Amino acid sequence: MEIKEGYIDYLGYKTYYRIVNPNGKKTPLVLLHGGPGSTHNSHELFDPLAYDDDRPLVMYDQIGCGKSSVEGSHKELWRKETWANELINLREKLNLKEIHLLGHSWGGMLAIIYLCDYAPEGVKSVTLSSTLSSASLWRKETHRLINLLDTRVKNTLLKAEAENDFDSPKAKKAVNYYYHKYVFGPFKKNEVPECLTRKKPSSKETYETSWGKSEFDPTGTLRDYEYTDKLKNIKCPVMLCSGVNDESTPLQNKIMYENITSSKKWHLYPNSRHMTYFEDNESYMKNLKEFLNENE
Predict the structure, then answer these.
(1) Which residues contact 286 (CB under 8 A, 6 or more apart)?
(2) Which domains does the chain have, with CATH numbers?
(3) pLDDT range class, residue 107, cuts 50, 70, 90
Protein backbone atom coordinates (compact mmCIF):
# COMPACT_ATOMS: atom_id res chain seq x y z
CA MET A 1 0.00 0.00 0.00
CA GLU A 2 1.56 3.26 -1.13
CA ILE A 3 1.27 6.09 1.38
CA LYS A 4 2.63 9.59 0.99
CA GLU A 5 3.12 11.69 4.13
CA GLY A 6 4.33 15.21 4.66
CA TYR A 7 3.79 18.64 6.17
CA ILE A 8 2.35 21.85 4.75
CA ASP A 9 3.18 25.32 6.06
CA TYR A 10 0.22 27.09 7.62
CA LEU A 11 0.22 30.23 9.79
CA GLY A 12 3.83 29.60 10.70
CA TYR A 13 2.98 26.05 11.88
CA LYS A 14 2.74 22.69 10.12
CA THR A 15 -0.25 20.69 8.88
CA TYR A 16 0.49 16.96 8.72
CA TYR A 17 -1.09 15.08 5.80
CA ARG A 18 -1.32 11.45 4.73
CA ILE A 19 -2.34 10.32 1.23
CA VAL A 20 -3.22 6.68 0.56
CA ASN A 21 -2.91 5.51 -3.08
CA PRO A 22 -1.66 8.94 -4.24
CA ASN A 23 -1.69 7.82 -7.90
CA GLY A 24 -5.27 6.56 -7.87
CA LYS A 25 -7.19 7.42 -11.03
CA LYS A 26 -10.43 8.68 -9.46
CA THR A 27 -11.20 11.98 -7.73
CA PRO A 28 -9.52 12.21 -4.29
CA LEU A 29 -11.61 11.89 -1.13
CA VAL A 30 -10.57 14.40 1.55
CA LEU A 31 -11.44 13.34 5.10
CA LEU A 32 -12.03 15.79 7.96
CA HIS A 33 -11.64 14.35 11.45
CA GLY A 34 -13.65 15.11 14.55
CA GLY A 35 -12.98 16.81 17.84
CA PRO A 36 -12.16 19.61 17.58
CA GLY A 37 -8.90 18.18 18.77
CA SER A 38 -8.95 14.60 17.55
CA THR A 39 -6.71 13.22 14.77
CA HIS A 40 -6.83 11.47 11.42
CA ASN A 41 -5.99 8.18 13.16
CA SER A 42 -9.40 6.49 12.97
CA HIS A 43 -9.68 7.47 9.32
CA GLU A 44 -7.03 4.87 8.59
CA LEU A 45 -9.99 2.47 8.68
CA PHE A 46 -10.81 3.92 5.25
CA ASP A 47 -7.46 2.80 3.78
CA PRO A 48 -8.81 -0.30 1.95
CA LEU A 49 -11.25 1.92 0.03
CA ALA A 50 -8.32 3.68 -1.65
CA TYR A 51 -7.39 0.55 -3.60
CA ASP A 52 -10.80 -1.06 -3.76
CA ASP A 53 -12.02 2.06 -5.57
CA ASP A 54 -8.70 3.20 -7.14
CA ARG A 55 -9.08 6.54 -5.37
CA PRO A 56 -6.57 8.71 -3.45
CA LEU A 57 -7.61 9.26 0.16
CA VAL A 58 -6.33 12.48 1.69
CA MET A 59 -6.41 12.74 5.48
CA TYR A 60 -4.70 15.20 7.77
CA ASP A 61 -4.37 16.33 11.37
CA GLN A 62 -5.96 19.73 11.80
CA ILE A 63 -3.76 22.38 13.39
CA GLY A 64 -3.69 21.91 17.16
CA CYS A 65 -4.18 18.15 16.83
CA GLY A 66 -2.02 15.04 16.57
CA LYS A 67 1.02 15.51 14.36
CA SER A 68 -0.08 19.09 13.69
CA SER A 69 0.09 20.03 17.38
CA VAL A 70 1.62 23.37 18.30
CA GLU A 71 3.70 24.17 21.36
CA GLY A 72 2.41 26.49 24.04
CA SER A 73 -0.98 28.11 24.48
CA HIS A 74 -2.67 29.53 21.38
CA LYS A 75 -6.31 30.05 22.33
CA GLU A 76 -6.68 32.70 19.63
CA LEU A 77 -6.33 29.98 16.98
CA TRP A 78 -9.13 27.65 18.04
CA ARG A 79 -12.03 28.95 15.99
CA LYS A 80 -13.81 27.90 12.82
CA GLU A 81 -11.97 30.33 10.52
CA THR A 82 -8.60 28.81 11.41
CA TRP A 83 -9.64 25.33 10.36
CA ALA A 84 -11.65 26.39 7.29
CA ASN A 85 -8.68 28.34 5.94
CA GLU A 86 -6.41 25.40 6.74
CA LEU A 87 -8.55 23.24 4.45
CA ILE A 88 -8.32 25.91 1.73
CA ASN A 89 -4.53 25.97 2.20
CA LEU A 90 -4.35 22.15 2.06
CA ARG A 91 -6.22 22.05 -1.24
CA GLU A 92 -4.01 24.75 -2.74
CA LYS A 93 -0.71 23.23 -1.59
CA LEU A 94 -1.65 19.68 -2.66
CA ASN A 95 -3.26 20.89 -5.91
CA LEU A 96 -6.60 19.27 -5.06
CA LYS A 97 -8.67 21.02 -7.72
CA GLU A 98 -11.50 18.48 -7.65
CA ILE A 99 -12.40 16.48 -4.55
CA HIS A 100 -15.05 14.56 -2.72
CA LEU A 101 -15.35 15.62 0.92
CA LEU A 102 -16.18 13.60 4.03
CA GLY A 103 -16.46 15.07 7.51
CA HIS A 104 -17.13 13.12 10.68
CA SER A 105 -18.62 14.80 13.79
CA TRP A 106 -16.77 18.15 14.14
CA GLY A 107 -15.31 17.36 10.70
CA GLY A 108 -18.87 17.41 9.34
CA MET A 109 -19.40 20.81 10.95
CA LEU A 110 -16.21 22.00 9.28
CA ALA A 111 -17.43 20.67 5.92
CA ILE A 112 -20.71 22.54 6.36
CA ILE A 113 -18.91 25.77 7.32
CA TYR A 114 -16.57 25.41 4.34
CA LEU A 115 -19.34 24.73 1.83
CA CYS A 116 -21.80 27.33 3.14
CA ASP A 117 -19.47 30.22 3.98
CA TYR A 118 -16.71 29.83 1.39
CA ALA A 119 -18.58 28.42 -1.66
CA PRO A 120 -15.55 26.43 -2.85
CA GLU A 121 -15.27 25.16 -6.40
CA GLY A 122 -14.52 21.59 -7.37
CA VAL A 123 -16.35 19.73 -4.59
CA LYS A 124 -18.19 16.87 -6.30
CA SER A 125 -19.95 15.54 -3.17
CA VAL A 126 -19.95 15.71 0.60
CA THR A 127 -20.58 12.97 3.15
CA LEU A 128 -21.74 14.33 6.51
CA SER A 129 -21.05 11.59 9.02
CA SER A 130 -22.56 11.70 12.54
CA THR A 131 -22.55 15.47 12.63
CA LEU A 132 -24.78 18.49 13.32
CA SER A 133 -25.96 21.77 11.86
CA SER A 134 -27.00 23.44 15.14
CA ALA A 135 -25.10 23.71 18.43
CA SER A 136 -28.30 24.63 20.29
CA LEU A 137 -30.15 21.56 18.98
CA TRP A 138 -27.13 19.40 19.77
CA ARG A 139 -27.29 20.63 23.35
CA LYS A 140 -31.01 19.84 23.59
CA GLU A 141 -30.59 16.38 22.13
CA THR A 142 -27.55 15.40 24.19
CA HIS A 143 -29.38 16.51 27.33
CA ARG A 144 -32.33 14.38 26.25
CA LEU A 145 -29.90 11.45 26.01
CA ILE A 146 -28.53 12.29 29.46
CA ASN A 147 -32.05 12.14 30.87
CA LEU A 148 -32.31 8.55 29.63
CA LEU A 149 -29.35 7.49 31.78
CA ASP A 150 -29.31 6.09 35.29
CA THR A 151 -30.47 8.77 37.76
CA ARG A 152 -27.12 8.91 39.58
CA VAL A 153 -25.19 9.33 36.34
CA LYS A 154 -27.63 11.96 35.09
CA ASN A 155 -27.45 13.97 38.30
CA THR A 156 -23.65 13.80 38.37
CA LEU A 157 -23.42 15.12 34.81
CA LEU A 158 -25.90 17.92 35.42
CA LYS A 159 -24.09 18.93 38.61
CA ALA A 160 -20.72 18.93 36.82
CA GLU A 161 -22.22 21.06 34.08
CA ALA A 162 -23.75 23.54 36.54
CA GLU A 163 -20.41 23.90 38.34
CA ASN A 164 -18.37 23.78 35.10
CA ASP A 165 -16.20 21.12 36.71
CA PHE A 166 -15.71 17.86 34.88
CA ASP A 167 -12.35 17.05 36.49
CA SER A 168 -13.47 15.20 39.61
CA PRO A 169 -13.19 11.38 39.52
CA LYS A 170 -16.97 11.08 39.89
CA ALA A 171 -17.63 13.46 36.99
CA LYS A 172 -15.05 11.75 34.78
CA LYS A 173 -16.68 8.39 35.46
CA ALA A 174 -20.10 9.77 34.54
CA VAL A 175 -18.75 11.36 31.35
CA ASN A 176 -17.17 8.04 30.38
CA TYR A 177 -20.51 6.32 30.96
CA TYR A 178 -22.21 8.78 28.61
CA TYR A 179 -19.37 8.39 26.11
CA HIS A 180 -19.59 4.60 26.11
CA LYS A 181 -23.36 4.75 25.73
CA TYR A 182 -23.53 7.11 22.75
CA VAL A 183 -20.05 7.60 21.32
CA PHE A 184 -17.39 4.86 21.41
CA GLY A 185 -15.61 2.18 23.47
CA PRO A 186 -14.54 0.90 25.84
CA PHE A 187 -12.20 -1.47 24.04
CA LYS A 188 -8.99 -3.25 24.88
CA LYS A 189 -6.05 -2.66 22.57
CA ASN A 190 -6.12 -6.16 21.11
CA GLU A 191 -9.85 -5.93 20.30
CA VAL A 192 -9.72 -3.11 17.75
CA PRO A 193 -7.36 -1.86 15.03
CA GLU A 194 -4.28 -0.09 16.35
CA CYS A 195 -5.31 3.24 14.83
CA LEU A 196 -8.24 3.44 17.29
CA THR A 197 -6.11 3.14 20.42
CA ARG A 198 -2.94 4.92 19.27
CA LYS A 199 -1.63 7.46 21.76
CA LYS A 200 -1.83 11.09 20.66
CA PRO A 201 -0.71 14.44 22.07
CA SER A 202 -3.09 16.24 24.38
CA SER A 203 -5.44 18.65 22.62
CA LYS A 204 -7.37 19.69 25.72
CA GLU A 205 -6.95 23.41 25.06
CA THR A 206 -8.02 23.00 21.44
CA TYR A 207 -11.20 21.16 22.43
CA GLU A 208 -12.17 23.21 25.46
CA THR A 209 -11.53 26.57 23.79
CA SER A 210 -13.51 25.73 20.67
CA TRP A 211 -16.25 23.47 22.04
CA GLY A 212 -16.26 23.29 25.83
CA LYS A 213 -15.50 20.96 28.70
CA SER A 214 -17.95 18.25 27.65
CA GLU A 215 -19.56 16.68 24.60
CA PHE A 216 -23.01 17.94 25.52
CA ASP A 217 -22.45 21.57 26.49
CA PRO A 218 -21.01 23.83 23.74
CA THR A 219 -19.60 26.88 25.52
CA GLY A 220 -16.53 27.66 23.39
CA THR A 221 -15.97 29.59 20.18
CA LEU A 222 -18.32 27.24 18.31
CA ARG A 223 -21.22 27.79 20.71
CA ASP A 224 -22.99 30.01 18.16
CA TYR A 225 -22.64 27.48 15.34
CA GLU A 226 -26.09 27.60 13.70
CA TYR A 227 -26.09 26.43 10.09
CA THR A 228 -29.43 24.69 9.61
CA ASP A 229 -30.84 27.61 7.59
CA LYS A 230 -27.61 27.78 5.57
CA LEU A 231 -27.71 24.16 4.41
CA LYS A 232 -29.59 25.29 1.31
CA ASN A 233 -26.32 26.87 0.20
CA ILE A 234 -24.73 23.44 -0.32
CA LYS A 235 -24.84 22.82 -4.06
CA CYS A 236 -23.21 19.39 -4.35
CA PRO A 237 -24.85 16.01 -3.61
CA VAL A 238 -24.98 15.14 0.10
CA MET A 239 -24.97 11.83 1.96
CA LEU A 240 -25.85 11.79 5.64
CA CYS A 241 -24.64 8.92 7.83
CA SER A 242 -25.56 8.36 11.48
CA GLY A 243 -26.13 5.60 14.02
CA VAL A 244 -29.31 4.54 15.80
CA ASN A 245 -27.57 5.03 19.17
CA ASP A 246 -25.53 8.03 18.04
CA GLU A 247 -25.30 11.32 19.93
CA SER A 248 -25.83 12.75 16.45
CA THR A 249 -29.45 11.70 16.88
CA PRO A 250 -32.01 10.79 14.20
CA LEU A 251 -33.85 14.05 14.91
CA GLN A 252 -30.76 16.13 14.15
CA ASN A 253 -30.13 14.24 10.94
CA LYS A 254 -33.79 14.44 9.91
CA ILE A 255 -33.70 18.23 10.29
CA MET A 256 -30.49 18.46 8.29
CA TYR A 257 -31.92 16.20 5.59
CA GLU A 258 -35.07 18.30 5.30
CA ASN A 259 -33.09 21.55 4.96
CA ILE A 260 -30.66 20.30 2.30
CA THR A 261 -31.96 21.22 -1.14
CA SER A 262 -29.36 19.52 -3.35
CA SER A 263 -29.43 15.82 -4.23
CA LYS A 264 -29.38 13.91 -0.94
CA LYS A 265 -29.61 10.56 0.83
CA TRP A 266 -29.41 9.39 4.44
CA HIS A 267 -28.18 6.09 5.87
CA LEU A 268 -29.13 5.28 9.47
CA TYR A 269 -26.91 2.46 10.74
CA PRO A 270 -28.59 0.05 13.19
CA ASN A 271 -25.49 -1.21 15.02
CA SER A 272 -23.78 2.12 15.59
CA ARG A 273 -23.15 4.77 18.12
CA HIS A 274 -21.08 7.78 16.99
CA MET A 275 -18.35 5.82 15.15
CA THR A 276 -20.53 4.56 12.32
CA TYR A 277 -17.63 3.83 9.99
CA PHE A 278 -16.22 1.42 12.56
CA GLU A 279 -19.30 -0.21 14.06
CA ASP A 280 -21.13 -0.68 10.72
CA ASN A 281 -17.95 -0.70 8.65
CA GLU A 282 -18.97 -3.06 5.83
CA SER A 283 -22.28 -1.31 5.08
CA TYR A 284 -20.75 2.14 5.55
CA MET A 285 -17.92 1.53 3.10
CA LYS A 286 -20.23 -0.08 0.55
CA ASN A 287 -22.61 2.89 0.66
CA LEU A 288 -19.75 5.39 0.54
CA LYS A 289 -18.17 3.72 -2.49
CA GLU A 290 -21.51 3.73 -4.33
CA PHE A 291 -22.15 7.38 -3.46
CA LEU A 292 -18.72 8.52 -4.61
CA ASN A 293 -19.06 6.74 -7.92
CA GLU A 294 -22.58 8.04 -8.50
CA ASN A 295 -21.09 11.52 -8.32
CA GLU A 296 -17.73 10.91 -9.95
Answers:
(1) none
(2) 3-135+186-294 (3.40.50.1820)
(3) very high
